[in-house]
Amino acid sequence: MDKLYNNTMKYDDLYDKKLEQQLKFINKDEHIVDNMIYCKNCDTQRLWISPNKQIVTRVLCECQSEELEREEIDKELEKVKAYSKLLKDRSKLGKRFYNVTLGKSKETADKLSDSLKTAHEGAETYVNNWDSNLKQGKGFYYWGENGVGKTHLVAGLCNFLIDKYYAKVLFTSTGDILKEIRASFDNPNKTEQQVFNFYVSLDLLVIDDIGKQRFKLKGEDTHAQEKLIEIVEARYKDKKPTGLTSNHSLRQLVDEKGLDKAVAGRIYECSKDFTLEIKSPNIRIMTDEEKWWQKD
Ligand SMILES: Nc1ncnc2c1ncn2[C@@H]1O[C@H](COP(=O)(O)OP(=O)(O)O)[C@@H](O)[C@H]1O
Ligand SMILES: [Mg+2]
Ligand SMILES: [Zn+2]
Fold first, then answer.
1. 189-216 mean pLDDT
2. What spacing in Å lies between the alpha carbon of 210 and ligand 2's midpoint?
3. pTM of the predicted model, to two decimals?
4. 174 CA to centre of own chain
5. Is 278 in contact with 116 (CB distance < 8 Å)?
6. Number of independent structural domains in the chain
7. Ligand 1 binding site (Cβ under 6 Å of any ligand atom)
């Protein structure tokens, strides 16, 4: 039987034994002063003795505790980063717009045109008031011709919300929504209802380039119209923000593309504070020479 716990031993002997046992095993970065083990590095104790001297045990010194804390923080940060990445992957922003930031995008926008500059300022206001916009279900509507920087702007906005607020964002288009719904018909593991619920559950749903699809054909509502009505209506009821970009104004969507007036009304109501026509040069057709911001 271990002598240490031999009950014929006196109390003090037992304490001495325990201490002796601990003092035997000291590491290179430790030294002993008055029967106490200290860390050479931070000079705090690596041994703890209870006031009644019954417990003699090893503990972490200050620098070891700090190291452990740092490791734990790093682990947490890794988790946060992984979560951000997951949100970003799920946002479907795609490679081109994955790393677009509002800040960098605005630097360029400021020099391209007044309305693009105003749009970026609006987007900054939008993200800086995200908590309140989310609560009130406020979205945005940016429209203008091809290549003026609508998608780029909105990508920066989405990335900001994901990085700063871990917002559940989906960047999609009417075409993609229809495709996903159609795909659910052939997928036994996914129902249309599930797809629909997913769209409604998102913090921010962005529908890029609305109006590419017709909303009426020979006087009849198209599939695009039906699905848009369902999704916009459900998000409106749930006070969930929806953001849109388009080549057309809302009025044009109604008058020329047959967008349902009630849906247009909902969109207008929720995005009127952040609606803007962007007038800018077509960045897409600029030559590399003209893209001064790409040169260091
Ligand atoms: N602020 C900006 N800074 C840098 N590049 C931009 C900016 N805005 C747009 N671009 C680039 O210009 C091109 C057209 O912009 P995009 O957002 O796709 O236009 P739109 O959606 O209006 O058709 C894209 O290649 C985009 O990355
Ligand atoms: Mg676009
Ligand atoms: Zn130490």
1. 94
2. 10
3. 0.79
4. 23
5. yes
6. 2
7. 105, 108-109, 146-152, 283-284
